[in-house]
Design brief:
Elements lengths: L1 H23 L5 H23 L10 H28 L2 H8 L3 H12 L5 H18 L1
Helix pairs in contact: 2-3, 4-6
């Protein structure tokens, strides 16, 4: 039940965020908006890390882990969100968000190709539903 509760809270926050982002982008460029967002998030995370007493753990993270997590951050938090902010600034939040939320299609394909994950009927069915949902909302 704990997992489901966190998922519901995350869903609510992720549903609210595009509306706030769209409102916030009315007078700034997507790049500036993303900078403000990232700076604010970084301050909160730094404070959390310091208050939890876990800042010392940073020195024990190996180079491979740093590289993969940093690359994920550049792809998702920088480039992906920058593209999302441009789409959000010039498009309707109710149309942009479902397209962006179809990213599991890419993850499923790359997981199968690079991570050796199995292609199952459930994954095929889920991917098909995502595609249909995006096509319907594009309307």
């Amino acid at each position: 039940m704990k997992t489901f509760g966190f998922a519901l809270v995350g869903m609510l926050f992720w549903g609210l965020a595009p509306v706030l982002g769209k409102l916030g982008l009315t007078k700034v460029s997507p790049a500036l908006g993303l900078t403000i967002r990232s700076f604010t998030v970084s301050l909160f995370l730094l404070g959390w890390l310091l208050m939890s007493g876990k800042a010392g753990e940073l020195s024990r993270v190996d180079a491979r882990t740093w590289a993969f997590v940093a690359a994920e951050g550049v792809l998702a938090s920088l480039l992906g969100h920058l593209a999302y902010y441009y789409a959000l600034k010039f498009g309707e939040a109710s149309r942009v968000t479902p397209v962006m939320a179809a990213f599991p299609l890419v993850t499923v394909a790359l997981g199968i190709i690079f991570l050796g994950e199995k292609l199952t009927l459930a994954k095929i069915g889920g991917a098909a539903m995502v595609v249909v949902g995006v096509l319907l909302i594009r309307g």
